[in-house]
Amino acid sequence: FVFLLNWVNLITVATERQADRLIKREIKKEKIRIIRSHINLAKFRPLEKEKLKQKYRLSNKKVILNYGAMREDKGTTDLFKSIPLVVKEKPSALYIFICRWKKIEEWYLQFIKDNKLEKNVKIITDDVAIEEYVNLADLAIFPYQTLTRTESNPSCVLECLACKTPVITTDLKELKEILIDNYDCIMVPPKESIQIAAATIALLKDPKKRKNFAEKGIRTAAKFDVAKITREFLDGYDDLLEE
């Protein structure tokens, strides 16, 4: 039913790649407008990391965060496979996974047991103040294999940048539209656990680099504030009314 889109006046998509796909399906280019996904900068803003670590009794840990659904296409298994390599180099590393699902797949639990990672991996399925965990983390990792089943501008990545938490993610085309490798984040190829581990170790060892990514990342996140994105939608409506 894609052909029906030529009967509407305005089509909004979140990425250039989505726009290109529609154009290839013979949707008129002039009907398409790229408006990115939004985040709430009033909620996701920098907080004092060390105070939060004290609050959660994590002062002696290097915290690596991942949150959202734990699925293969989100690279969760790839991230898990990188953990033993990192822990070998950095025994104080603590991986916190905040999962929206109450039931965790047996593979993850068995992997933790087989690799004796009980002290290095914590899976949280309860409702928590996610903005506090984002702020207390030393870095966050989102190794997406694909963005087919998620937002093309993943809110998790942008929320972390907004809190000045350095991010490691994958070099998918959609992500490269909004992020710059080695500028506001680190990008690695999808499904490459060894490279995820290497990037993690490098960031954990280099507080100066983490600070540099944090300062640049927060400027990137500012482009996605809900007020700015709402204004872009309203401008689109205004243009239609003028026509």
Give a nutshell description of this structure.
This protein has 243 residues and is of the alpha/beta class.
Q: In DSSP terms, counting alpha (H) and pi (I) runs of 4 or more, how many helices?
A: 10
Our measurement of the CA-to-CA distance between the termini, rounded to an integer number of angstroms, reads: 26 Å
What structural category do the secondary elements indicate? alpha/beta
Low-confidence stretches: none
Instruction: Report the helical percentage.
Output: 40-55%
In round numbers, the mean pLDDT is: 94
What is the CA-atom radius of gyration, in angstroms?
A: 19 Å
Name the strands of the widest sheet in spatial order: 5-4-3-6-7-8
What sequence of helices (H) and strands (E) makes up the elements? EHEHEHEHEHEHEHEHHH
The outline comes out as globular
Major sheet characteristics: 6 strands, parallel
Strand content: 5-15%
The count of DSSP E runs of length 2 or more, i.e. the number of strands, is: 8
SSE blueprint and pairings:
Layout: E1 11-13, H1 16-24, E2 32-34, H2 49-55, E3 62-67, H3 76-89, E4 93-98, H4 106-114, E5 121-124, H5 130-136, E6 139-142, H6 155-162, E7 167-170, H7 173-176, E8 186-188, H8 193-205, H9 207-221, H10 226-242
Parallel strand pairs: 1-2, 3-4, 3-6, 4-5, 6-7, 7-8
Helix pairs in contact: 2-5, 3-8, 6-9
Protein model, in words:
The chain is an alpha/beta fold and 243 residues long. Helix content is 42%, strand content 14%. The chain is built from 10 helices and 8 strands. It has helices spanning 16-24, 49-55, 76-89, 106-114, 130-136, 155-162, 173-176, 193-205, 207-221, 226-242; strands at residues 11-13, 32-34, 62-67, 93-98, 121-124, 139-142, 167-170, 186-188. The chain has a 6-stranded parallel β-sheet, sandwiched between helices. A two-stranded parallel ribbon has the order 1-2. Helix 2 packs across helix 5 (130-136), helix 3 (76-89) crosses helix 8 and helix 6 (155-162) packs across helix 9 (207-221). The chain is globular and about 60 Å long. It starts with 10 loop residues before the first strand and ends with a helix. The mean pLDDT is 94.
